[in-house]
Write a structure and sequence with these properties.
This protein is mostly helical. The protein is built from 26 helices and no strands. The longest helix is centred in the N-terminal third of the chain and has 47 residues. Keywords: Coiled coil, Transcription, Transcription regulation, Transcription termination, Transit peptide.
Amino acid sequence: MLSIPQHQHHLLSLHLYFQNPFNPQTFLFFPTTTTKRSKPFISSSLHHQHTSQETNNNEQQILRKHNSKSTTLLLRRLSQQQQQEEEEKKVEAEVVENEQEEEEKKVRLLELSLVRRRTPQFSGSIYLQSYPDSSSPPPIARLFPREADVDNDKMLKQALEIRRKVTSEILKECMRGAKFSITYSTNLVSLMPEFIDHVMIEAASMKQLPEFSHSTFNARAKTFIQNSNVVTLIRWLKHHSLTYPQIGKLICMSYGNLESIRRSVEWLKRIYVKGNYLGLVPIKAGRGVLERNPDELDEIIGYLESKGIRRDWMGYVVSRCPQVLSFTMEEVRSRVAFYMNMGMNEKDFGTMVFDYPKSFGALTLEEMTCKVNYLKEFGLSNEEVGRLVAFKPQLMACSIEERWKPLVKYLYYLGVRRDGMKRMLTLKPMIFCVDLETTIAPKVRFFQDIGIREEAIGRMLVRFPTLLTYSLYKKIRPVVCAVLSCFLYLCI
C-alpha cells in the first residue's frame, strides 16, 4: 500500500468516497501531482453548495439580455400562445352556447307538440284567434313570456312587410292589366306607401262581410282596388300631364278619398290652370285643398275677381302662388285690405298680384308690415309706399337683413344720405331688389379704377340711379372706353 503511486491514491480515495460518501475517512487531503500545488479534496455536498453560490453571484453580476432577434422570436411565440388560448376559449364558449340552444330548442319543440293544431293560414296573414284557441293559450306564453313578446313583435312586423309586398304586387298587376308599363307601375307604386296601407286595412275589414268571409286576401285586395277606380284615376291624371311623382303624392294626400282629386283637378281647369300645374297646385297648397268644398273656393276666386284680378288671370296667379287656395275667406279679406289701405285701387291691386303673385300669398301679414315700415324710414308716406309696391311688387320678397341693410350701408359709405336713397328708391326701385356683390359692387369698383372718387360716385348714382341697372361689360365699359379714346384723340 505504501508503494502505490500518488495518482493511484487519488483514484482510490474517489472510489471510497462514492462507495460511502459520509465516511469520515474519506475526508482526506491527497496531493494531485508532485509538481503542482496540493489542493484539498472536499466532500460533494460542500462542493455543490460552493458552486451554487458562485453561480448565483455570477448571475447577479452578469445579467444577460435578449438581442433583437431573440426578442422578436420570444414575442412571436408568446403571441401565438395567447392566440391559441383565446381560440380555445372561443371554441369552448361556442360549444356551450350550442348545447344551450339545442336544449332550448328541444324544450320549445316539446311545448309546441303539446299545443293544439290550428287552421292553416296565408303567410303574413293577421287573424284574430278563435274562441277555442284564445281560451287555452299555448304554454310557451307562460314559460317564456318575454321571448314570446319579442317573437310576436318580429312576426307582426314580418307579416306587415309581407302584406305590403303582396298588396304592391296586386296593384302593379292591376296597372299592367290597364296597359301601363312595368317601369311606370313600379315607380308609381313605390311612391304610394300610404295608399298601400289603406288597401291593406280595407281588405282586412272586408273579411267581416258575409260575401268575403271565405275569400283570400289577394281576392279582397284586388276587389277593393277595382272598386276604388284608382287605376282609372291614374290614367286620367297622366292624360292631364301630371308626372308620376305628382300622382303618387296626390293619391297619398287623399287618404283614400280619390274622388276629391278628380274634383279638385276639374275645378282648377275651370280657372284656367293648365299643364303640370294641375298637380303642382294641390301639392303645394296642402291637403286642405282636397278637403275643401268647391263652393268655398269659388267664393275666394269671386272676391279676388271683384278686387281687380281678372278671371283669365286666376290660373296664372294660383299656379305661381298656390297658397291662395289654403287661405280662409277672412285671411283673404285682411290681405286685400292691407294693400288697399296704402292707397291702391282695384286696378293697381290686380296688376300687382298678376305681376308678382307671391306678394299676396307667400308672406305673412307681420312680414309685410315690417317691410312697409322699413320703406317708410326713407321718408316715404303711406301712399308713396303703396305706389312703389304696386309698381315694383318684387320689393315685398326682398329680405331686410340680407338685402336692404347691406345696400344702405354700402351707399352710406359712398356718401349717399337718406334723401338720396329716397330718390334712388323712387326713380329706380329695382336697385333694392338686385344683389349687391354681383351687380352693384363691380360697377362701383370700375368707376374707382378709372379714377373717380367715392363722393363723386355717390352723387352720380343719386342723379342717375339707372346706371346701376346697365350691364358692365356690354354697355358701361364700352361707352367709357370710347369716351376716353375720343378724349385722348382730341388732346393729341
